[in-house]
Amino acid sequence: MMDFSVSDCPVPAEQQPLNEYEALKASNFFSTCSSEWRKYLTKLAWVWGLSWVIAGPVAAASFSPQKYIVQFMLCGAGLATIGVIFTVVRWYLGWSYVCDRLTSPTIFYEESGWYDGQTWTKPQEILTRDRLIVSYQVKPIIHRLQQTLGVIALILLLGELFWYFL
């Protein structure tokens, strides 16, 4: 990304929206959202599998795997999906925050602490650059996360319908 800084920008470097975007994009946790579909889905599968560590015993306490294998599997899968939902919602909140900061014409920042907040209005060039980043980099990620939450909701609904007709 371009290294664009305005000499009269009073916002500390770590609170500038472009730097917040770059930090989010570089982090191991949030960078998964912008990776290829295979890597993205693999990470979600790992989260779902690890969630079974908690979901499995809870489902087994509710439905004996020896007697009610289908109910045990449905209950465990539904409970394990909660871990995936938490992960996707956390990704969504992080990317939405950065999206809001990039698209906003004014930036709220703190100079040295919580008690001295200020507001800075972005010049038109910076606002245009930030909105282009949102359009081509951030919005596709947010759209992917929204699609993921929709698919999860559909899968949970299908599981519930299967349970009902069981």
UniProtKB/TrEMBL annotation:
Keywords, ordered alphabetically: Membrane, Transmembrane, Transmembrane helix
The keyword Disulfide bond belongs to this UniProt entry's keyword annotation: no
Domain of life: Bacteria
Keyword DNA-binding set for record: no
Entry's transmembrane regions: 44-63, 69-93, 148-165
Protein name: CGLD27 family protein
Organism: Gloeocapsopsis crepidinum LEGE 06123
